[in-house]
């Protein structure tokens, strides 16, 4: 299947087949993750948000508190949705999947041969002396994202009560949760290494489709991902912290794509290999987003996507046998 035209600006940074040894080819997706509901970002049972002290902006070293959206809180829902979308489209298009692929799930039953496993990584949990225990290293990397707005502006305590079903009355408050308010912005950078065009396309579809993050997602956590920039090269060009501090110095709300383009151009000049670094122009970013949305997922694409993952599984399995 031919690569869609909207991906052509990145053609030099794709691999044809997934390599056993990672290359330096790197694509970074810059996203503004914006809360559209009360959202909880925490890792402990203290019911407190994850916060950190950072400089106010790139030009102002004054320390301020900001909310942290940890990398694990970004990866987990996208990891799950990546394979959920694949299986749903495969069923819709009549693509036959092996039982081991259908039953693949986090974290103790990974098949190591589906598109999710070969991108996000997979660890064998099989036991026994003769077990086939080789693992797959991830080729997608997440970093913590920090709120543009100060902690004091976007945090809110919400109490909750229990209702007596007999009297329909409430007693005293049972407790509280500390939430991030709606319209809080978290600039995020996701880095993909040595990916095929199929993998980038599917990740972007997953990114646009995933809209639930944080704790207590059954009743809150709506978050929308806005893709605002893409940079490719032979290294990681920008970190989320650098992006955050630069955006805090800019009037980005009216045209975030152009603002991020200027920031990426600035940091691309500091790359170790400037001549192989490519920042997508604002119109290219918009064409990419629209192309991903309009791309028609068909049986040919899904079968090729699955075949590439299986081929990698076969190569890795054979290499593991040689090393024994």
Largest sheet: 5 strands, antiparallel
Q: Which strand order spans the largest sheet, edge to edge or round the barrel?
A: 4-8-1-9-10
Spatial gap, N to C terminus:
37 Å
Task: Give the SSE string.
Answer: EEEHHHEEHEEEHEHHEHH
Helical run tally: 9
Radius of gyration: 22 Å
Q: Beta-strand level of the residues, as a percent range?
A: 15-25%
Number of domains: 1
Report on the architecture of this protein.
The protein is α+β, with helices and mostly antiparallel strands and 324 residues long. It has one domain (5-322). Helices cover 33% and strands 20% of the residues. It is built from nine helices and ten strands. Strands 4-8-1-9-10 form a five-stranded antiparallel β-sheet, with helices on both faces. A three-stranded antiparallel β-sheet has the order 2-3-5. A hairpin with a 7-residue loop joins β2 (51-55) and β3. α1 packs across α5. The protein is globular and about 55 Å long. The two termini are 37 Å apart. The mean pLDDT is 90.
